[in-house]
């Protein structure tokens, strides 16, 4: 933690401008500080938050069954065995705290009632978003002592329940600020160039920021309601939740500061990690990862039939494909898949740009690759192009959170559970058929594609909600649809919800590829959590919890 705080002292002072280039070069000259201001640092806090989602998605992708090792690559021992060390998945911690430190700089230089109050509110929401994610992965984290620079280089760890309560209260404060009117000749509005998420403190922008804050709050209460230390607080806190769906996210929360396909440092980070670089060279990460038979079973008819989302998500979905591996030629229905931990040749191999780059275009065209793919604005799917925005939270997740929260047995918000459930499916389809400019470009409305999907699965309560007659079936349907929606986007949410609910349902200990997403190397050893990073034990050893193992359950886990 001390290292992160040192970065905060320096990083908060980085010279920048509100231009696209400068938000993207957030690490430029970190050791040569001079001065900075909230209008410069706020967009960096937003962008660092968006960039950190890649690390969370990477963890969730491995552990929740969305991806596995490809043939011809090694070095996956930890992913296969779940024998995590303090060196694994540290990017979640460092990425979130780097963003928090930027937000703290803004908060230290603004107030809730001063001329920069809207900067203050937005920085609060970014800080709170990151803390909610940290608590959901680690439990206890530094909070009350964190972000104080050299005054607190070894911050204490606060209990998860205290952090949750503080974050929730802070979100309420941010909402109150955004709902307060601007004062003529006093309040400085956040401009479009300073807010790469919602375009500034226009009326529409403030409404969307409030919706995001409320959706984070709802997620926290859904996750906390069965935790012993938080149950009574949830009962009281829910009074501040909106009572209509319009109060929550109705569109995807996507950060795009102007990602540029011509400059390597200005690529969307998810694209550059998994697809191609500026020269059109395929990423080794994308080539070395494969979808699993488990996740494909939710698209290809084994568990559910989902042709429209399948072909948008994966290259060669449903097509006959041939691969020659060594002296062996194999033919299969695409995309190629591999079960986590399977390493006996011939293991199928990925394709340039990864199988998560479907290359599906509207209107239809041949799958383009390399530099052409980097710039192509007609692609839809998960990986769209180098200029695509970075997702903070999907509208699909918002609707499915509301669906669960509206169930009488949960009773957090009013609402029609079935309608919210189907809105979640529609929103998932909508995101996948958006292009890099964040425009839905399928000539068939998403609601129509949703109806087609429900009809194709009309005997399965996981899609046809009318058939879910018990609370457990309803919850399973909702969580399964959320698991599908966050595939390779916010994959950690799929695993968070599995830990909380046990859905999607797996057969414990099975080694059958469509019965479980657990590794063949450790089918009974799914981890309960990741470990605190090694840097904490090096620089904050007096405070970091030492009794945590990968079997230590988080507060919301079953």
UniProtKB/TrEMBL annotation:
Gene3D superfamilies: 1.25.40.390. SUPFAM superfamilies: TPR-like. It holds the Pfam family SusD-like. InterPro entries: SusD-like, SusD-like_2, TPR-like_helical_dom_sf. This is Starch-binding associating with outer membrane. It comes from Pedobacter quisquiliarum. The lineage of its organism: Bacteria, Pseudomonadati, Bacteroidota, Sphingobacteriia, Sphingobacteriales.
């Amino acid at each position: 933690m001390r290292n992160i705080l040192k970065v905060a002292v320096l990083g908060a002072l980085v010279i920048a401008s509100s231009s696209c280039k400068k938000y993207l070069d957030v690490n430029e000259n970190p050791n040569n500080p001079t001065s900075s201001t909230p209008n410069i640092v706020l967009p960096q806090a937003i962008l660092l938050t968006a960039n950190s989602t890649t690390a969370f998605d990477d963890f969730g992708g491995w552990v929740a069954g969305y991806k596995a090792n490809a043939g011809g690559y090694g070095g996956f021992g930890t992913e296969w065995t779940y024998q995590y060390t303090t060196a694994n998945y540290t990017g979640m911690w460092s990425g979130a705290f780097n963003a928090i430190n930027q937000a703290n700089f803004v908060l230290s230089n603004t107030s809730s009632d001063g001329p920069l109050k809207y900067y203050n509110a937005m920085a609060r929401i970014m800080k709170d978003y990151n803390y909610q994610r940290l608590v959901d992965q680690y439990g206890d984290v530094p909070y009350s002592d964190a972000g104080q620079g050299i005054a607190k280089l070894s911050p204490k760890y606060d209990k998860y329940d205290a952090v949750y309560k503080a974050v929730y209260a802070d979100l309420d404060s941010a909402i109150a600020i955004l709902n307060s009117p601007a004062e003529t000749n006093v309040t400085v509005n956040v401009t479009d160039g300073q807010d790469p998420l919602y375009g500034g403190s226009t009326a529409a922008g403030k409404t969307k920021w409030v919706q995001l804050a409320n959706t984070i709050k709802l997620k926290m209460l859904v996750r906390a309601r069965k935790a012993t230390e938080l149950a009574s607080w949830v009962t009281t806190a829910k009074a501040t939740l909106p009572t209509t769906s319009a109060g929550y996210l109705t569109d995807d929360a996507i950060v795009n500061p102007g990602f540029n396909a011509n400059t390597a440092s200005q690529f969307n980070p998810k694209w550059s990690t998994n697809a191609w670089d500026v020269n059109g060279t395929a990423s080794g990460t994308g080539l070395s990862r494969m979808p699993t038979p488990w996740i494909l079973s939710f698209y290809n008819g084994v568990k559910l039939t989902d042709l429209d989302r399948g072909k948008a998500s994966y290259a060669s979905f449903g097509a006959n494909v041939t691969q020659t591996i060594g002296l062996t030629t194999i033919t299969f229905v695409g995309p190629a898949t591999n079960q986590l931990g399977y390493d006996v040749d011939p293991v199928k191999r990925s394709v340039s740009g990864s199988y998560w780059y479907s290359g599906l275009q509207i209107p239809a065209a041949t799958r383009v690759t390399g530099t052409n793919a980097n710039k192509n604005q007609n692609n839809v799917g998960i990986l769209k192009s180098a200029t695509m925005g970075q997702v903070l939270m999907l509208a699909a997740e918002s609707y499915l959170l509301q669906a669960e929260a509206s169930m009488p047995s949960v009773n957090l918000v009013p609402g029609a559970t079935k309608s919210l459930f189907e809105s979640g499916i529609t929103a998932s389809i909508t995101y996948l058929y958006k292009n890099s400019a964040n425009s839905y470009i399928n000539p068939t409305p998403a609601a129509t594609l949703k109806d087609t999907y429900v009809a194709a699965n009309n005997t399965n309560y996981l899609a046809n909600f009318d058939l879910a007659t018990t609370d457990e079936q309803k919850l399973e349907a909702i969580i399964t649809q959320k698991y599908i929606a966050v595939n390779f986007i916010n994959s950690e949410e799929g695993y968070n919800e599995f830990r909380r609910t046990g859905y999607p349902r797996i057969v414990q200990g099975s080694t059958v590829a469509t019965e479980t997403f657990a590794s063949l190397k450790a089918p009974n050893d799914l981890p309960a959590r990741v470990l605190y990073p090694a840097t904490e034990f090096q620089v904050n050893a007096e405070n970091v919890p030492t009794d945590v193992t990968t079997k230590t359950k988080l507060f919301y886990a079953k």
